[in-house]
Amino acid sequence: MNLETEKTMSRPEASTALVRKAELEELLIDAEADDEQVQQSHPLVRRPWLLLLGLILVALNLRPALSSMAPLLSDVSKSLGLSAAQAGLLTTLPVLCLGLFAPLAPVLARRFGAERVVLGILLTLAGGIILRSNFGEIGLFAGSVLGGASIGIIGVLLPGIVKRDFAKHAGTMTGVYTMALCLGAAMAAGSSVPLSEHFDHSWAMGLGFWVIPALVAAVFWLPQIGQKHGAHNVAYRVRGLLRDPLAWQVTLYMGLQSSLAYIVFGWLPSILIGRGLTPTQAGLVLSGSVIIQLASSLAAPWLATRGKDQRLAIVVVMALTLGGLFGCLYAPIDGLWGWAILLGLGQGGTFSLALTLIVLRSRDSHVAANLSSMSQGFGYTLASMGPFAVGVVHDWTGGWNAVGWIFGIIGAGAILAGLGAGRALYVQVVSEKV
């Protein structure tokens, strides 16, 4: 086994010893040489539009399996006779699977290559959607597990691909990827109920329709298979992430902001229905809020990378998110759309910044892939507790007012974690070529 050890370091301050500064400059020179080698050996870099198209289509499929369920949850529960606890589990289970299966991503990528894994898991996602919508209660829960697991694995791999092939435009490309992800969520949230009504009020068709974009993405991702990746075809093992405080701050921010996002995906329509909206209206409000995320998901990373660090941006987007959540929960219903817009502006920024932090806190694509696995693995496992807590509190109180405490506690924790994760540092790890 040939080992070449590189240590990633935090950005040098004015008081840093000259020897450490020289070591960092040497590492940066090596990184630039590596990038040049990839530019020469990676054919997709000469055709970035092909990879970009594939990334956008894949990202479009990373939320419909999640956001399509919430507007149809009452219909599904009535049709299958689900209890409130089972309905709550149905909103929590896919998010939990995002975290539990995320650590498999780097293992599979080292064995088969990231591009092949993305293709295979897209087909697995399609299978989960079919299973969820066609085989009763057992299929519903089994398909939800399979869909959540698939999304968790793909979601870990894409930031590393962005870091590898678009390193000089990581912030912008992360925004584009996040924008596509939000668009997929918005389409599913807004159209699942109309699709169900179009097909004789069949919730199965409203959920099962989303197998089509998954298969289309697989077709367009197929050209990525078999491409040569030069230096990046070598497997790397990264050690030390679990001991690095900055890595845990990135992870906590990812998990806590995701918890609020999945509360919105899983429960916002139910909250709004409880306030007097019809299921169609509630789904449209969720869809509209997610559509607004398109703007902030693209703008927030670009703006955040213009400053010396990302701390101010994190505070701003979290404040917008909390304001929108409290408005949707407590404010007069006639101003609902304004609060939904505010919520969308905040959440589009929180998630895109979480992905941007993975890239910015990593010195190279190997570290980015492993930090992505850690932050999404532990983070989404933590995030799943948010929707579960909302369901429990709603059952205890018989209403929605008390869930505002959940919003406030999670939001405050996300701000604290973000203030640490937003500092202009690199995680300190050891990256070994094997």
TrEMBL record:
<dbReference type="InterPro" id="IPR004747">
    <property type="entry name" value="CynX-like"/>
</dbReference>
<feature type="transmembrane region" description="Helical">
    <location>
        <begin position="246"/>
        <end position="268"/>
    </location>
</feature>
<feature type="transmembrane region" description="Helical">
    <location>
        <begin position="49"/>
        <end position="66"/>
    </location>
</feature>
<dbReference type="InterPro" id="IPR052524">
    <property type="entry name" value="MFS_Cyanate_Porter"/>
</dbReference>
<keyword id="KW-0472">Membrane</keyword>
<feature type="transmembrane region" description="Helical">
    <location>
        <begin position="339"/>
        <end position="360"/>
    </location>
</feature>
<feature type="transmembrane region" description="Helical">
    <location>
        <begin position="312"/>
        <end position="333"/>
    </location>
</feature>
<keyword id="KW-0812">Transmembrane</keyword>
<keyword id="KW-1133">Transmembrane helix</keyword>
<feature type="transmembrane region" description="Helical">
    <location>
        <begin position="367"/>
        <end position="390"/>
    </location>
</feature>
<feature type="transmembrane region" description="Helical">
    <location>
        <begin position="402"/>
        <end position="426"/>
    </location>
</feature>
<feature type="transmembrane region" description="Helical">
    <location>
        <begin position="117"/>
        <end position="135"/>
    </location>
</feature>
<dbReference type="Pfam" id="PF07690">
    <property type="entry name" value="MFS_1"/>
</dbReference>
<feature type="transmembrane region" description="Helical">
    <location>
        <begin position="141"/>
        <end position="162"/>
    </location>
</feature>
<dbReference type="InterPro" id="IPR011701">
    <property type="entry name" value="MFS"/>
</dbReference>
<feature type="transmembrane region" description="Helical">
    <location>
        <begin position="174"/>
        <end position="195"/>
    </location>
</feature>
<feature type="transmembrane region" description="Helical">
    <location>
        <begin position="280"/>
        <end position="300"/>
    </location>
</feature>
<dbReference type="InterPro" id="IPR036259">
    <property type="entry name" value="MFS_trans_sf"/>
</dbReference>
<feature type="transmembrane region" description="Helical">
    <location>
        <begin position="86"/>
        <end position="105"/>
    </location>
</feature>
<protein>
    <submittedName>
        <fullName>CynX/NimT family MFS transporter</fullName>
    </submittedName>
</protein>
<feature type="transmembrane region" description="Helical">
    <location>
        <begin position="207"/>
        <end position="225"/>
    </location>
</feature>
